[in-house]
Amino acid sequence: MHKIISNDMILENVGRMIVEAPYVAEKRKAGQFIILRIDEYGERIPLTIGDADASQGTITLFYQVVGKSTKHLSMLKAGDVLSDIAGPLGRPTEIENYGTVACVGGGIGVAPLYPIASAMKQAGNRVVVIIGARNKELLILEKELGEIADGMITCTDDGSYGKKAFVTEALAEAQDSEKIDLVVAIGPVPMMRAVSRQTEKNGTKTMVSLNSIMIDGTGMCGGCRVTVGGERRFTCVDGPEFDGHKVDFDELMARLGTYKSSETESLEKYEHKCRLQGAVHER
Questions:
Q1: Domain boundaries, the chain
Q2: Where are the alpha helices (DSSP H) in 142-207?
């Protein structure tokens, strides 16, 4: 059993939960995730570890309310308990001194970007953070990432805050002004695909964190399979991070569409915008 320390909605449909998980807090590394169950009848929910405090034995989780289970999660209060937390799972981010690292996040993907940006900074990199959302009200962790970043660009689709642009446009401008040695992109699949296609043109190494359908987290069910470099990989044990230039994003989008939801529909709208933007860049 894992006691909830706090559980707050930081946006209308995005929550931040701090929960006791001493082993995970001690062992976790940037890029890893956990799978939780609210109770013995609950489904398994994979969530990236947004932060951890080993001295307090706690981890911070961010989640988006998209269905029954995450709605139930959002209703829990401090003092309630979670039945299970399995982790840390997945391969950690490869942290080293690359030089200049651009950390690009979109929407809820900004949450898992935070521990990676922090670890990259601690490794001695110059860290440029680029985050985006549809509007100002959907931005998260801008202040926290700003405290880490050597350079910070905030974008909104509607121009309600920061730069009116997609994150790919901001990344292109950053690459024009300085040499970027590594790009880490986390967010909606169409966004990660657009970033990867853009950086592939100039050969900038790009890592993406995939959010494929996941059930058991051990590679046994095969639900999270993706194709990377023409070979089958499992996001839960081989990822979640892969070379963005090798990921078959079309296949991933098709698999995510197996469970159609309003979230998937919004991704398709975003994908259309990215196509339009990509056409502009190609001209």
A1: 2-89, 100-282
A2: 142-148, 167-177, 189-200
* Choices 3.30.450.40, 3.40.50.80, 3.30.450.150, 3.40.50.12780: CATH for 100-282: 3.40.50.80
What is the strand order of the sheet 81-82 is part of?
A: 81-82, 2-11, 14-20, 58-64, 45-53, 33-37, 84-89
Alpha-carbon gap, residue 196 to 183, rounded angstroms: 9
Q: Which of helix, strand or coil describes residue 55? A: coil
Q: Give the Å distances, CA to CA, from 159 to 51, 104, 153, 165.
A: 30, 18, 13, 7
Domain formed by 2-89, architecture: Beta Barrel (2.40)
pLDDT tens-place string over residues 88-143: 999 999 999 999 999 999 988 898 899 999 999 999 999 999 999 988 888 889 99
Question: How many residues does the structure list for the chain?
Answer: 283
Rounded to whole angstroms, the Cα distance separating 258 from 222 reads: 15
